[in-house]
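Hi R.,

As promised, here are both runs. First protein below:
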Amino acid sequence: CIAGLLEPTSGKIFFGDKDVTQLQPKDRNIGMVFQSYALYPHLKVIDNIAFPLKQKGMKKAERYEKARKIAEMLQIEYLLDRKPTQLSGGQQQRVSIARALVRNPAVILADEPTGALDSHTGREVIGMLQQLHSEGHTVVLITHDNSIAVQAERIIRLEDGQVVYDGDAHAPEAIVQPTLSGEAAQEEAK
């Protein structure tokens, strides 16, 4: 809903004084990082990174210049002429992050950005997102992994569509307690 991919069934989402649902997708100042990378397999890396700028109508030379700068920042400039199928999962996720950053968004939405990565590469991706946050970007990270969630400053935990926690990620109550199911819950009740 924040990205405008779905409309809220109730309530409203505002960035500043603007209702997100009233903005055209190209006018939203949001970058998306998907768990499945969502790269265009027929495009080279540079074109995948520059794609949001093409949608805004920016000229090719300027798009490529910005894409190269972001690729250098993420240390993937050597991948620019490859296609996504020629990349590892970690490389594809870095390309996805570069594409999310190319417009210098105020908000970065990262949906399970480490879900398909090995632990080492996952830590690198989380480190990149933490760096972006320290540079002034708002990072909204969706994860089921509590070890990743507790690295944030704030956690908003949802269960069955309801907010069950909203607060400091380092508070004791921020830690997810295992849910007992079926027989285990009955044994616990005895």
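And here is the second one, sequence first, then its structure tokens:
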Amino acid sequence: MINIRRVINLLPTSWQPYVLHMRLRAFPLVVGHVSAGVFLASQGSFTARQVAQWIVGALLWAGFGHSGTLALNSAFDRDEGDIGYLTNPPPVPRYLWLYGLALIVVGALLALPPLMPPQYLIAYLLCTAMSIAYSVPPLRLKAHAGADVLNNALGYGTLTLYGGWAALGRALDPTIW
């Protein structure tokens, strides 16, 4: 198994907190959620193009959208103890909020058609809006009981699964429901 800290230690010291706050240990979990949507959409039969869409869609969703969201969240939370998918986090760097937002925006730009289907971009942007509403004042839904759970259920559950479905360009139909 890859030790993420060892790999990150190869980076310049000033970059390390930014990458650590992306909480890369969560990456496989999010890729798994996206992949479940891809499997539902493909019905177990893949073309080479669908495999490419799957890989790009999962990398964009997990590597840019989700990782950017977690960095943005860390920037506003300023946690000092262990947090989800990050043991002993480093102090929050000054521009972490901008870094997280930049990751999210770059992911959205890369998700533009023709690289990804329009429904994927819509799901990505909707999840982006939800992640900002979750972490950033004045809404900061994570501070409101019930709103935090609903936001996570819709984002991690529904939209992440749908992101995989949408990565293959499949129209909504009863199978996804």
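A quick note on the second one: The chain has a mean pLDDT of 93. Let me know what you think.

Best,
J.
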